[in-house]
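Hey, quick one: can you model this chain's 3D structure?
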Amino acid sequence: DIAGASKNPYKPLDGTTFYDNLIGINSPASQRTEVYCYWPRDYQRKIDLSYVTDYNYKLYDSLNGSRFYNIRTDVYEKNPIPNNQLTADEKKTKNKFKRILRQGFE
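Sure thing. Here's the predicted structure for all 106 residues.
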């Protein structure tokens, strides 16, 4: 999108462009609903980090404690939500995030 190159030779695309966000055009239909992030931290001598997040929640991988946060109410991620306190919707979100994390490791 940024370079203006044709997308046809690259079909199927494996991601969602964020170019519209850079230029200030936010189309709800083209927005990502969640983001997978992988951070290799060899240079810090720490284990690699991966997580999935959306606009409300964040789940870290099992190597990093499988912590699940409401990032709207706990911006600094100080209080992970225990499994026994998850609402039905939070359980669905956490399970969806777990599936995405597993795909990231495949």
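One thing worth noting: DSSP finds two helices and four strands in the chain.
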